[in-house]
Amino acid sequence: MSIFLLGVTFPFWQSVEPEDFPKVAMETKGDQCVAPAAYMRKNHMLLLNTWRDSVVRDGERFHIMPDGSRVEKSLTKTCLGCHVSKKQFCEECHIYASVKPYCWECHVVPVSGGHTELSAIDTDEIEQQELLNNLLARNQ
User: Fold this and answer.
1) pTM
2) What is the per-residue DSSP string for the chain?
């Protein structure tokens, strides 16, 4: 029985050797990610969905980085403003894992050089948005 199970499951556990994983381009333009790399590998879609919901439903457009700085909650401006190649960074893993993310059903697919600039983030605008969010939260 154990030989049968070993034989049947061999293709699954044999194929998870680290050398089988895709080699993604880790070239970035920033010093740090919005979250630790280990978290992002497992939970980037959860983070992006949380960002989407907080921007669309709550009007919270900014994320606080581990160093205390603020960035826009934006796949194309923040994530792809730092990770220099959607094809070499995102698609390598998605193709390997046979997943088709729905990000690009709404977002415009970035072209070379077209997604490298963060929009200007005015600190007065951030403070006004925080005041408005606090006021709305108290009046609910």
Assistant:
1) 0.61
2) -HHHHHHHHHHHHHTT-GGGS------BSSSS-SS-HHHHHHHHHHHHHHHHHHHHHH---EEE-TTS-EEE--IIIIIHHHB--IIIIIIHHHHHTT---SGGGTSPPP-TTTT-PPPP--HHHHHHHHHHHHHHHHT-
